[in-house]
Each structure stands twice: as structure tokens, then as C-alpha cells.
Amino acid sequence: MASPFPGMNPYLENPDLWTEVNHRLLTAIADAIAPLIRLRGGKPMPILSEIPAFDYNILISRSNCRPQAQMYSFSLRQKIPCFPLPLKSGEVEPNVDLQNLLMGVYERAGFDLAIDYIQEPVPPFKKKEDRVWADSLLLAKGLR
Predict the structure, then answer these.
(1) Distance from C-alpha of 74 to C-alpha of 127, rounded to nearest angstrom
(2) Do you know which InterPro entries this protein is assigned to (predicted)?
(3) Separation between Cα atoms, residue 36 and residue 121, nearest integer Å
(4) CA distance 16 to 83
(5) For residue 35, which of 85, 82, 69 has the smallest C-alpha distance?
(6) Concatenated DSSP letters of the chain
């Protein structure tokens, strides 16, 4: 069964599942880009400004453009945006389709069997309107 959410599934953020989700997703990302790149090292970039108020953010920083960075922000109701993965300056940047990778992880791991969609997610929704939206989404998909 596919995830009922169009983007990030908030139920996967449950601390009881997140470690497995995180490991599987990192492996899926590595598998997806391995044919395109070799492992590279580098220093993490410090965040010098406020992070936008979205549900999720992906920060992309090219080493030759620091401290400038690109922020890919999205809400619970949106699909996860694809983003370019910076490599060395001048190299072609592979596009990471995190949405597709996460959906594949969800299906291969059988997370639909581990998640009780009748319950609220852990951690709970931050906004009441997201809870109402998720409730009607899950009702429409027969999961509540």
C-alpha cells in the first residue's frame, strides 16, 4: 500500500519508527546517487539566518557559494520537492527525488502495517488545520 499522504507522512516521524525510516531513506538516497558520484568529504555549513516557518525544509549549500544556500521549503500538504545534490564545483548535480525515494522506502518496509492511522501521529500535528486536513484525507482513503 502506498502512503496516503501526498508528501511527507507525519506518522513516519514517530520516534518508534523514525530510526528505521531514517536509515532506509539514507540508504535509498545513497543507492540512487551512487552510480552518479563518488563519496566526497567536506565541512557542514553553519546556518546564519532564521529558518522559514514551514513544516519541512531542505537546505542546499554549494561549497563555492557559501554562505549562500537554497532552501526548499514545503508543507505537510505538498509533495516533497526534488532538489539538486551539490557535488564539486563544475560537476553535474544529480537531482534527488526524495518524494519517490521515501514512497519506495514506505512500501518496501511495509510501514502501512506498522502505522495505525486511526491514532494521531507522534509527534502530534502542530496546527489544528493540518489535523483536520489529515483526518479528512485519511477518511477519504478508508484509513479512519
Answers:
(1) 15
(2) DUF4058
(3) 36
(4) 28
(5) 85
(6) ---SSSS--GGGGSHHHHHHHHHHHHHHHHHHHTTT------PPPPP-SPPPSSSEEEEE--GGGTT--EEEEE-TTSPPPPEE---STTSPPPEE-HHHHHHHHHHHHTHHHH--TTSPPSSPPSSHHHHHHHHHHHHHTT--
Comparing 28 with 41, which gets the higher pLDDT? 28
Split at pLDDT 50, 70, 90, the class of 64 is confident
CA distance 135 to 141: 10
Where do the domains of the chain lie?
10-140
61 closest CA partner among 82, 76, 42: 42
